[in-house]
UniProtKB/TrEMBL annotation:
Keywords: Leucine-rich repeat, Repeat. The keyword Iron-sulfur does not apply. The keyword ATP-binding does not apply. InterPro entries: Leu-rich_rpt (IPR001611), Leu-rich_rpt_typical-subtyp (IPR003591), LRR_dom_sf (IPR032675), LRR_domain-containing (IPR050216), Ubiquitin-like_dom (IPR000626), Ubiquitin-like_domsf (IPR029071). GO terms for cellular component: cytoplasm. The lineage of its organism: Eukaryota, Viridiplantae, Streptophyta, Embryophyta, Tracheophyta. Transmembrane segments: none annotated. This is Ubiquitin-like domain-containing protein. Residues 20-91 form the Ubiquitin-like domain.
Amino acid sequence: MEEGGAADPNGKGKGESKDITISIKFSGRSIPLTLSPDSTITHLKSLLQPLTNVLTRGQKLIFKGKVLVDTMTLRASEVTSGAKVMLMASQGLHQGDGPILKQAQSVPRRVDNANNKLEKQQVPVDKNRLERWKATGVVALSQCNLKAIPDEVWACGPSARVLDLSNNSVQDVPAQVGCLSSIQKLFLNANSIMDESISWEALTSLKYLTVLSLNQNQISIIPARIGDCNSLIEVDLSSNLLSELPETFGNLHVLKALHLSNNGLKSLPSTLFKMCLQLSTLDLHNTEITMDLLRQFEGWESFDERRLLKHQKQLDFRVVNPAKFDEGADKN
């Protein structure tokens, strides 16, 4: 029997209890957590999801050789302060390729007492770099250990056609991105970008933007304004924290490829298949979207014909057997 009171929806008991600190062992890491002993195992799993990128239903917590039961509290499970709990993740239930809070991508902060602003990273200036970017139209800054987009990028203005900032620790996509008025491809993969740090108003002003890649970030909400980016041909939102997409995705009439793998999605916009009439690639691996659900969408048959045709032309497609739809949809 539990020693504490009944757990409330937040996992805490009615009476006050001194918080405990436990360590979660996962993928060679030790994740410290401080919470009430009257927290349920379900609540503990919900805290671990954004820290490990493993969906709650794919988590198995083991303590002293026993699997912890979701409905029980830490106290009832005899998990006390200093306890070490092992997390085992079910295959196929990861939202991404690893923990969100990667140590290599952690962003050190320093608060300036004078103006309380985040310290900007000082990036060595290559005098010839800006000229090279303007001449080629390609701003290549992948794997440069950046914490912010350098100001000299904005100086490229309409000369830039491609901006690659993948594999950095960039947090913000500011309004200045709108000055890159001729940009066609924007790669922001594997950074530290969250919902509130993207200027979607600026992105919608980029009338020539055809490729937007934001995989492996911390995005949980995609605003309806993405539907105004009506030149997009390919969108990659894989390995984020998305649970739904706005109906305005249907406004992307020239969209051909949409990558959504490793997210918590359970459905798709009802407008997707019936309005995106050029869509032929849809990656849904490691989501909760089922084949039964997909078959119910208006326009599914036409999409299925397009993706089969693309496969038959031996273009880049992710299906081994063209007779079956295997882009991540659960076959059960």
